[in-house]
Design goal:
2 copies of one chain form a homodimer. Chain A has about 140 residues and is an alpha+beta fold. Helix content of chain A is about 20%, strand content about 35%.
């Protein structure tokens, strides 16, 4: 039986979302993760660090990649198998980040790999890596 | 100059946190990530899937690992460089997960790698992978 879902995705196909990082996203992420590090939450403390201001939790960013994979490309029904993450630069409150996924390889058993990137609007890469997913089958 | 921070961490040293996954954690994660996939949010829809009930966003789990690395071991001042993630099994609302980090290697330039694991209380591994961080220097 032909796996028709594979017709939907080809190498180079991509999807993007743009998100502005807010203080309340960081506060909610602290609540979920239990990471109340003051560099994320305390303006005064953060001003004394190398960053000079509060930074977002790095692990907030892969959530944005997950959202594209699960909602846009491949879309609903996608099963997330693996993700590699390399953090490159801090993200500050008010930064707009462009989150991109681009199909790298279409593999056996409906598996597809994606290049995954998060960049600031000035082009600075803040995170990159690769995802491996199982694409949903068409019904 | 000797890097005294490395004295604090040795191979095999580990830290754990236990967290019970709640509906509000999942709702908050949806809000942050923009991932409103009904398998995470809609009881009726989720009942019709292979999972039979709502599941947590997979990417919620690495946030728990991040919290241990940044708060417990190595602790405040840690800089997160890399993380690999392999998702193994779904996590349901009410599941208690045990999140573990264990020092794998102490490397040059204050870098340390950790085995990172998330398991259910019955021992089922739901996520594993490795982290690479820069340890904080003692002041």
């Amino acid at each position: 039986m032909q796996d028709t879902s594979l017709k939907k995705i080809s190498v180079g196909q991509s999807s993007q979302r743009s998100t502005t990082i807010t203080s309340s996203m960081i506060e909610d992420f602290a609540k979920i993760s239990g990471d109340y590090n003051p560099v994320h939450l305390d303006d005064e403390y953060a001003a004394s660090t190398r960053f000079g201001q509060r930074i977002a939790h790095g692990m907030l960013l892969p959530g944005l990649i997950s959202a594209i994979l699960a909602n846009d490309l491949p879309g609903p029904g996608t099963i997330y198998l693996e993700q590699t993450i390399s953090f490159k630069a801090p993200v500050f409150i008010g930064d707009t980040v462009i989150v991109s996924v681009e199909c790298k390889e279409v593999l056996e058993k409906s598996r597809v790999s994606f290049k995954t990137t998060v960049a600031k609007s000035d082009g600075t890469i803040v995170m990159d890596g690769e995802a491996l997913v199982i694409t949903p089958l068409l019904k």
